[in-house]
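Technical note accompanying the year-one report. For the benefit of new consortium partners, we illustrate the data format agreed upon in the data management plan: each record pairs a sequence with a structure-token string. No post-processing was applied to the example shown here.
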Amino acid sequence: VYNADLKHEEEMGEFIKICRADGVGLKDKEGNILLPPAYTGGIYMPFEDRIIAREGSPVAFECMRSYLFDTDMNLINKEYNAFVYLELDDGSYVGYAGCEGEFADFPCYDDNGELCEKGYWFIDKNGNKLSEKFEYIYENITYEEKEDGTSERIYHHSFIVKKEGSEEEIIPEETYAVKD
């Protein structure tokens, strides 16, 4: 096994994440490579049966391309630059994803080789669209100032969406939250 550039390994559920100088990969506990260490944007498990692997930089949606796999390494969805999943207080989750179309550093293509449509959607754990298309979606994050002068990031679990030039706040528990 070539590992001259091995930086470190870490357990990730039933897998081991391989972190090398040129990217991140995944192997099983027996050492079999499941995803080669070529994903420069990281590998994450938002659910115990889903894996997100990213190419590029996780700085912004347009700087990466993401792949959604199941734990058998079947590619489920590759049509978004990024998938984001947040667990809510009641155990449900909200997911959203975005595609930057031709403006992305790493454009996304569907199974027919066509460039994916630019837009943002609320999604389920398989990347299936649950909403209409938005120009963008972002988390409504506020900060609370503490007595010591520092601030703490507070999530209110709401999202700001933009459609046809106007912004609107959406509460996911009332709209796009999913409970498995």
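Partners are asked to follow this layout when depositing records. DSSP finds no helices and 14 strands in the chain.
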